[in-house]
Write a structure and sequence with these properties.
This protein is mostly helical. It has a single domain, classed as Up-down Bundle (Four Helix Bundle (Hemerythrin (Met), subunit A)), CATH 1.20.120.910. It has six helices and no strands. Helix 3 packs antiparallel against helix 4. The radius of gyration is 17 Å and the shape is globular. It holds the Pfam family zf-dskA_traR. InterPro entries: Znf_DskA_TraR (IPR000962). GO terms for molecular function: zinc ion binding.
Length: about 120
């Protein structure tokens, strides 16, 4: 996927997340955030964490990371293997950090092993 297309998806996703935050933040806070450049908006939102749910905070953190990667020129590259992230993953989630292979490995590594039970 071309970075320009992924960038557009990221901008759209950012707008969707900001629209979902309207209920959690005041109109004045939302107006101040919208006045910023897209890559600065999620850093500003972080200042209002106390008003956000854990799910909203995760979305903000994911978007902040994606915008940082865009600024660094590594957006759409896997954070682990540095290979391009599959188009399908980016279409489904523009903030994806890992390719399918590395994401599966990441999930396996962070999942606690189930204790073996005696029968």
């Amino acid at each position: 996927m071309k970075v320009e297309i992924a960038h557009q998806l990221l901008r759209q996703h950012s707008e969707q997340v900001i629209a979902q935050l309207v209920d959690s933040l005041s109109a004045q806070q939302i107006a101040a955030i919208r006045a910023l450049k897209p890559d600065e908006q999620f850093t500003a939102i972080s200042a209002y964490r106390q008003a956000l749910s854990p799910e909203q905070i995760k979305r903000v953190v994911d978007l902040e990371a994606a915008w940082f990667q865009y600024q660094q020129g590594v957006f759409t590259l896997c954070a682990d293997c540095e290979e391009p992230i599959e188009d399908e993953l980016l279409m489904a989630n523009p903030t994806a950090q890992r390719c399918a292979h590395c994401h599966a490995h990441y999930l396996q590594q962070r999942s606690p092993a189930l204790p073996l039970c005696e029968l």
